[in-house]
Amino acid sequence: MNLRWMEAVLPLGIIAGMLCVMGNAQYYIHRAAHGRPKHIGNDLWDVAMERRDKKLVEQASSSG
C-alpha cells in the first residue's frame, strides 16, 4: 500500500492545531487586557492618532 503520506497527517495536524491555539490565545489575552480586539496593522502612528481623537472628542463633549 502507498499510504506513506498518512504518516505526516498527524504531526501536521498537531502543528496546525498548536498554531491555532497560540493565535487564539493572543487574541483573547489582548481582548481581555484592552477590552477590544487588536487591529491588524496598527502601528505607533495609528495609536497616537487614536489618542488624539479620543482627547478631542472628550474636549468637545466637556465644552459643549
TrEMBL record:
Keywords: Electron transport, Membrane, Mitochondrion, Mitochondrion inner membrane, Respiratory chain, Transmembrane, Transmembrane helix, Transport
Coiled coil: none
Pfam hit, one: MWFE
Compartments where located: Mitochondrion inner membrane
Membrane topology (UniProt): Single-pass membrane protein
Domain of life: Eukaryota
GO cellular component: mitochondrial inner membrane
Chief location: mitochondrion
Protein family membership: Belongs to the complex I NDUFA1 subunit family.
Function comment: Accessory subunit of the mitochondrial membrane respiratory chain NADH dehydrogenase (Complex I), that is believed not to be involved in catalysis. Complex I functions in the transfer of electrons from NADH to the respiratory chain. The immediate electron acceptor for the enzyme is believed to be ubiquinone.
Protein name (database record): NADH dehydrogenase [ubiquinone] 1 alpha subcomplex subunit 1
Species annotation: Flemingia macrophylla
